Amino acid sequence: MNNHRSIFEKFKPAISKKYLLFVAALAWTFAGGMLLFRGFSFLHLHPEWFYLKMASSILVGVIFYFVMFSKVSLKHSKRIVNLPIEKPCLFSFFSWTSYLLMIIMVSFGIITRKSGLIPLEYLSIFYIVMGTPLFLSAFRFYYYGFNYKTAERRLK
């Protein structure tokens, strides 16, 4: 049994918790950026009231960030900083339940877009609303990654 554990440990892609915060930041930046890119691309297909739809979508996204996503990104930051080992697995920037939730949300987004259930004009607004708080949340991870000593003091 110990032999299997040592083989697992030997090949585990381990990184420090500080760099795990940067991995989380990149993942959230990518997800938010992708949704924003798709949202703005789809919004251009229906340019009526473009600036109003864009501004209101971003505003709702910012509100959504302060109401929900700031708490979620803080929770994930705390979890990373308080992991019991110094060099956790590269993929532990999310908990298992967060991975499951992400798979469900991505699947739902792809199915919704491919099925045409919701017209792209409206889906674009939803993408911008969701992309904005994801993108903003990434900055918390960047902040704590660059200021890891501060993260260790504040998040314990």
Describe the overall structure.
The protein is mostly helical. The chain has one domain. The protein contains 6 helices and no strands. The chain has helices spanning 2-11, 17-44, 50-81, 96-115, 120-146, 148-155. Helix 2 (17-44) runs antiparallel to helix 5 (120-146), helix 3 (50-81) runs parallel beside helix 5 (120-146) and helix 5 packs across helix 6 (148-155). The longest helix has 32 residues, at 50-81.
Number of strands: 0
Strand content bin: under 5%
Global mean pLDDT: 90
The SS-based structural class is mainly alpha
Helix content: over 70%
Number of separate helices: 6
For the largest beta-sheet, the strand count, sense and barrel status come to: none
Compressed to H and E, one letter per element, the order equals HHHHHH
Q: Between the first and last Cα atoms, what is the distance in angstroms?
A: 34 Å
Radius of gyration: 18 Å
Global morphology:
elongated
The structural domain count equals 1
Low confidence ranges: none
Quick overview of this protein structure:
With 156 residues, the protein is mostly helical.
